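Order emerges. For instance:

***
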Amino acid sequence: MKAVFVTIFPELIESFFSVGVINKALDESIINFEVINPIKFLKNNERLDDAPYGGGPGMLFRSEPLEEAINESKKLTSSNAKVINLSPQGKKLTQEKAKKLALDKELIFVCGRYEGIDQRIIDSKIDEEISIGDYVVTGGELPALIVFESIVRNIEGVLGDINSLEEESFSHQLIEYPQYTRPEKNNLGNVPEILLSGDHKKIKTWRKKQSLGKTFLLRRDIFPKELSSDDFKLLKEFLSDLGYESDRIADLLKNINKK
């Protein structure tokens, strides 16, 4: 995959590609990247930003230099490369969206600053807008890198163990189960005995129960509306293990259907 980042802070992007699995994927030519700075397209004493028509706080990226930067980006990729704008008004990033974008061979990320970018760029040059959450950050560089990393992890060959990807949080619409490493005991507590048992079937069941329970308690917004009979039973056991009374469990689970 090739990615082009349109940004006035190339150093933010370049440093990201120098470490971790992203750097490894770059070294192995699984991914490639370019940075286009829209400032290079300014003429004479032009500004990159200007005040919005109609008044209001802040400044906006002007359309002309951004248009030229996007056009230049397409010369480095192709005319079919998908152009993504990072914006609070975009659809929220999900694991499913990351998997879908991982199928693209070329992506262009527009990293806005200030109060945003001229709407004419969004209307005519942007294929998709993506948000990383309901909060505000200073610019689009960090959101673009978050989106890109979530995409890259789904490209074959980037992660050494394919099971790492399959068992990660949200891969199956559930939060990942708790994990532990050595030592077995310390002042912070003990590793659950079942993980030391060597019984892989029981361990798998325990992990599923933990994922179901954690997702139900912490991220009800993504929890499935329908469960298999076995998963429904595991969720009931999880809540019972926490000390919930049977009447309370029944009330909590009343809106979940069993397949």
